[in-house]
Amino acid sequence: MSENLAVPCIVDGKTYRVEEGMYLADLSTSIRQRVKQDYPKAKVTDFICSHHLLKYRLASVDSMINSDLKQSQKINRKLTRAMQSDDYEITDVNETLTKSLTFGERVADNVARFGGSWGFIGVFVFVLIAWMAVNSLQLFGIHFDHYPFILLNLCLSCISAIQAPIIMMSQNRSADRDRMDAENDFHVNLKSEHELRILHAKLDHLSQNQIPHTLEIEKLQIEILSEIRSELAELRDRQ
């Protein structure tokens, strides 16, 4: 009995069978709101035929597609600007330090480099042994520094006194390099974090909006195709 019940359509006022449309209460919230925008006095108990309902379904599909497209384009523009942004100052540490080198700093680097090598240790040990051997054994008749080699101790003290500040100068340059590397790492991490935030926003948009909208659109498409097939079947029966 309910299938043969004739009810008026809220749009054109004509009567249709119940299976030829839907009540507003059975529609999705977005489609029902669209119908109420055109017919503010409509109630959830009102009826709309499939022919007029198709227009609202297509409008709802277009609205969801356009909304998702605009949001995706907005996020993509933000991501593109973030990737192309040159606001993050990345310094070429080697080039900067090389250009700022003075003669004294080059000498300090070379001295520190040689002073921390096995070559320096070998030369130093050879000089010590040769010095003590010459003065102890009086080789070649040379005996200018008697035991306990006070002159040797004085020379070693002078070398240490001079070598220490030179090595400290080189270490200061190493500290400058570390500081510039740390600043570069900070800027790189800052840019990466900004890009990751945008990517997370894009993934959130996909999971919270676009995927549910896609499923809803597919559902509407199936309903529309079912109605079209029903109308085609009715046309065949009438023929």
UniProtKB/TrEMBL annotation:
<keyword id="KW-1133">Transmembrane helix</keyword>
<dbReference type="Pfam" id="PF06210">
    <property type="entry name" value="DUF1003"/>
</dbReference>
<dbReference type="InterPro" id="IPR010406">
    <property type="entry name" value="DUF1003"/>
</dbReference>
<feature type="transmembrane region" description="Helical">
    <location>
        <begin position="146"/>
        <end position="170"/>
    </location>
</feature>
<feature type="transmembrane region" description="Helical">
    <location>
        <begin position="114"/>
        <end position="134"/>
    </location>
</feature>
<protein>
    <submittedName>
        <fullName>DUF1003 domain-containing protein</fullName>
    </submittedName>
</protein>
<keyword id="KW-0472">Membrane</keyword>
<keyword id="KW-0812">Transmembrane</keyword>
